[in-house]
Amino acid sequence: MKKNISHMDRFIKKSLHEEEILIKDLINEIIAFKKWIIVVALIVFTLGLTYILTSSDEYTTTSKLLMEQSNGINSKALGGLASITGLGNLGIGNQNTEALPPELIPELVMESDFLKLLLYEKVYLEEVNDSISLVHFVNEYEKHNFYYHLVRFPNKLKSIFSSKVNTEVENNGDPISHENEAILAFDVRERKTIAQLKTRIEVEKEERLLVIKTKMPEPLASAQLNEILSRFLKEYLTKIILDKDVKNFEFIEERTKEAKNRVEQTQKKLANFRDGNRGINSQLLKTEEDRLLADFNLEFSLYNSLAQQMEQTRIKVQNATPLMTVFQKPQLPTVPSEPKFLLLSIVFLVLGGIIGVLFFFGLLVVRMLIIHFSHV
Asked: Domain range spanning residue 29?
């Protein structure tokens, strides 16, 4: 190294004296320094090789869902109902059914509110010869490369010494209830699982297709996670899209039941009045009978209209259900997708060469500054 530095110093002094750097001389200097560039490159490559060899195999499963969606409940179809019942001020006649934009689905999948549904779903692991929950897998059986453990080693030591304090805090603390749906609350294991699921799940939108990719250390576990994710995604999207429409239907259904009760009450009043005044000829009684009959006809007409609208709305709610057809089923992977040994080896080798050259230029700049200020 001293020989190379002295050779570099002569190059620097010559360049400073002539106030220019010749490209030919610079290239010769790099060639003269090639031994150390190669050493740096090999060090980086060795570190990269350690990462590759200590990383566990990962199997990726891909499936595709075809997205279809009907128009949902048409607000115009409910306009007549709003005018008949006088409920227009409640917004039933002007409700607009807004479907979830497909572009937001990949982002939705990565939200904790969705991923919490997967936490305690089970996948089969050959390593334990049993099906275990994803929380159990991430916290007990997930394998990591050497550098993961190296980076986390200080935190691990810290957690060992502070475990007693943390235990006391957890025992004395007042945890947030999971029953409150407005607030998401997770323990340490669940938070870690959600963070890891985000690295193992990928959802992309391609035209009308949702491409779902899942990654696990075993082929069957990868395929099972893919199937679970597809199933929960369909259910979750259905709930989101139909939530408003179903509430509208339930509201109309309640009004229909109330109208039916009023019809039965007015019908009973009319029947009781006629039974109690049979054979009596009085204009006053005739007028009262006509009034009760008019009330009954009005309530029956309203009930009949509501019943028809309820059936129409029921059909439209069913048609509004988002249809997601399985376009490509999850297929059991046979070859590990990660780590990509050849590709990563080339990447680390090239990266090592670049870092080696940068090391040379860094040393060149440092020596140039030292020589320059030593002659000032």
From this structure: 1-55+339-376
Among all chains, which residue has been given the structure tokens 């020589």?
A: 371
Helix (H/G/I), strand (E/B), else coil: 353: helix
Contact 212, 62 (CB under 8 A): yes
Helix, strand, or coil here: 205? strand
Instruction: Please give the full DSSP string across 242-301, using - where no structure is assigned.
Output: HHHHHHHHHHHHHHHHHHHHHHHHHHHHHHHHHHHTTT---HHHHHHHHHHHHHHHHHHH
Q: Look up the pTM and report it.
A: 0.60
How far, in Å, are 165, 172, 175, 186, 286 from residue 169 at the CA level?
A: 6, 5, 10, 16, 80
| Residue at 315 is within a domain | yes
Burial of 207 (0-12, 13-18, 19+ CB in 10 A): exposed
CA-CA distance, 367 to 376, in Å (whole number)?
14
Q: What is the pLDDT of residue 224?
A: 95
Q: Say how far apart CA 245 and CA 317 lie, in whole Å.
A: 7
Do 91 and 228 belong to one domain? yes
pLDDT band at 97 (very low <50, low <70, confident <90, very high): very low
For the chain, the domain total comes to: 2
Answer for the pair 216, 225: CB distance below 8 angstroms, yes or no. yes
